[in-house]
Design goal:
The chain has 138 residues and is mainly beta. It has one domain. It contains no helices and ten strands. Strands 1, 2, 3, 4, 5, 6, 7, 8, 9 and 10 form a ten-stranded antiparallel β-sheet that branches. The protein is globular, with a radius of gyration of 15 Å.
Length: 138
Amino acid sequence: MSKQVITASHATFSVVLSNAFQGTPVLENPVCEYNYLWDFEKNMGIAKLISVNGTPVNITLHPLGIKGYLDFMSDIPPTKYSISADPGNSIALIDVTIYRVILDIDLETGARSAAIMFNTDGSTIQTTSNFSDESSRL
């Protein structure tokens, strides 16, 4: 029996930023939809934050090159978005500024974690409950 070698990985999925890592939450438990594509043979890939609470943001995330993880981070300047205050509620919009977006995928366990730094200075950080408090990227 031959061992199957995985040469690429891709997925679209949602996570909830339920943890107030720093500052006062800008959105209450925002639902963030991501996708990523990774080519293990070329050791290259890209990810995107597609939406927050169903509001399209389409923020590109670039790989960080941390061993054992697929780690991605945005490189946009602080950017203002009008985002649904609640998932699926396009009537109640709130203006937010996104400073940085981080997505981590543990290659061993498949666990996915994420963080968004809000405000023009990144002073508010909301994360998934499993995001590492020791992250050097914040």
